[in-house]
Amino acid sequence: MTFSNNDTIAALVTPPGEGGIAVIRLSGPEAFALAARVFSPRSAQRVETFASHTIHLGEIHHPHLTSPARQTEGGQASGGGRKRAVVLDQALLSIFRAPHSYTGEDVVEFSLHGGMVLAAKVLELILAGGARFAEPGEFTRRAFLNGKLDLTQAEAVLDLIKSKSDLSIQTAMRQLSGALSARLKGLKDRLMKLYAHMEAFLDFPDEDLEVYSDGEMARSLRQAHEEIGALIQSFQRGALLREGALLVIAGKPNVGKSSLFNALLERDRALVSEFAGTTRDTLEEWLEIKGLAVRLADTAGLMHAAPHPLDALGVECAKTTLQGAQAYLFVLDGTRAPDKEDFLAWKNLEAGRPVIGILNKADLGTRMNSQERSKFSAVSCWLEISSKTRSGLEDLEQKIFEALAGMHADTAGEQITRVRHKKALESSFEALSRAEKAFQERASLELVTLDLRLAIDALRELIGEIYSEDLLDVIFSEFCIGK
Ligand SMILES: Nc1nc2c(ncn2[C@@H]2O[C@H](COP(=O)(O)OP(=O)(O)O)[C@@H](O)[C@H]2O)c(=O)[nH]1
Ligand SMILES: [Mg+2]
Question: How many domains would you assign to the chain?
Answer without folding.
Answer: 3
